[in-house]
Amino acid sequence: MPVITDLLFVRAAKETLDVEIERIPTLQYRYRRGATISCPMTVRDIDMKRFIEAVKQSDDVLYYSLEEITPDMYGKEILVVGGPLDGYKGRLLSMRGSRKRRLLVEIPDFMAAAVEVRPEFIQYVK
Predict the structure, then answer these.
(1) Terminal CA-to-CA distance of the chain, rounded, Å?
(2) Taking Cα atoms as reference points, which of 48, 27, 21, 54 lies closest to residue 109?
(3) What are phi and psi of 76, to 5 degrees?
(4) Alpha carbons 11 and 78: distance in angstroms, whole number
(5) What is the pTM of this model?
(6) Residue 119 — φ and ψ, nearest 5°?
(7) Helix (H, G, I), strand (E, B) or coil at 85
(8) Across the 126 residues of the chain, what is the mean pLDDT of every consecutive 10-residue run?
(9) Beta sheet of 74-80, edge-to-edge order
């Protein structure tokens, strides 16, 4: 089930996609907000893979656009040691009243997912 129903991530060269976008009028590129040059948004393979793997590990994922995440929502920096997210680095989602520890995993300049991390796997980075 797609997180965003009208968004399609494709792995292909721009020249190949241009042909399909011209052929299918409902397809269009997504552009980065605030970019000075109109270049289509791209996501590095490693960032997409990291995001997908993290989301698959949790039954309770919270999704955010980057505009929804305020500076006070970024918690402490952590390294996950052990468990299904072993080796992930990032920041905890800071939410009042929540007992769950959630790691923010981002697709840079686009969106983030907050996935649950068991406390025994959390190592705080200084």
Answers:
(1) 37
(2) 48
(3) -70, 150
(4) 31
(5) 0.81
(6) -55, -35
(7) coil
(8) 73 90 88 74 91 92 91 94 95 88 92 94 92
(9) 62-65, 111-116, 102-107, 89-93, 74-80, 122-124
